[in-house]
Design a protein that fits this description.
The complex is a heterodimer of chains A (114) and B (115). With 114 residues, chain A is mostly beta strands. Helix content of chain A is 0%, strand content 54%. Classes of the chains: A mainly beta (114), B mainly beta (115).
């Protein structure tokens, strides 16, 4: 069975600090996908990124970057120069098998203080 | 607005009552998922549809829960004889199955409170 662990329950930073959200996953799927979703206080889940298990290239999108390391089963997410609007709960998520259902971690609440 | 919509956004009910939620997916998305999210937790998979066929149900979905997707368009999730433990956010997501993974787009959710 799949499992996603986000060990950091809450993180608080001051604006402009860099912050890394950790994610470790367990899976028996040979082909799988990993995601990060953002859930702001409004409650709606916002898709941020998808990586498949064959692509370990790191990715950067603006202030966001992701580090996928299959050897350590980790998929960490870094926000550079954090902003107050980044305050939200962030979920690391796994999907494998033909049904593509998502297995979520418990989430990390990020608070960015001005 | 062409995103996933859910109705109602909030529902307060008394224990023992039946409730029904509706989800309208993105047009032409053939897959539709239901998840449940309790306070402080990540969403958990409940069930999913490929067109009108319900292909998988989680063990979380007790006999009091039923979901339908007539004609492969909108979907409804009904909870009979609600219990306080059913209080949660119910999320719907849709995606387009093109033979490989495609992103699931989530609706705003229906927050259920059972008194």
């Amino acid at each position: 069975a799949q499992k996603v662990t986000q060990a950091q329950t809450e993180i608080s930073v001051v604006e402009k600090e860099d912050v890394t959200l950790d994610c470790v996953y367990e899976t028996r799927d040979t082909t799988y996908y990993l995601f990060w979703y953002k859930q702001p206080p409004s409650g709606e889940l916002v898709f941020l990124i998808r990586r498949n298990s064959f692509d370990e290239q790191n990715e950067i999108s603006g202030r966001y970057s992701w580090n996928f390391q299959k050897s350590t089963s980790s998929f960490n997410f870094t926000i550079t120069a954090s902003q107050v609007v980044d305050s939200a709960v962030y979920f690391c998520t796994h999907s494998g098998g033909s049904n593509y259902k998502l297995t979520f971690g418990k989430g990390t609440l990020l608070t960015v203080n001005p | 607005d062409t995103g996933v919509s859910q109705d109602p956004r909030h529902k307060i009910t008394k224990r023992g009552q039946n409730v029904t939620f509706r989800c309208d997916p993105i047009s032409e998305h053939n897959r539709l998922y239901w998840y449940r999210q309790t306070l402080g937790q990540g969403p958990e998979f409940l069930t999913y549809f490929q067109n009108e066929a319900q292909l998988e149900k989680s063990r979380l979905l007790s006999d009091r829960f039923s979901a339908e997707r007539p004609k492969g368009s909108f979907s409804t999730l009904e909870i009979q004889r609600t219990e306080q433990g059913d209080s949660a956010m119910y999320l719907c997501a849709s995606s387009l199955d093109i033979g490989s993974y495609n992103e699931q787009f989530f609706g705003p959710g229906t927050r259920l409170t059972v008194l």
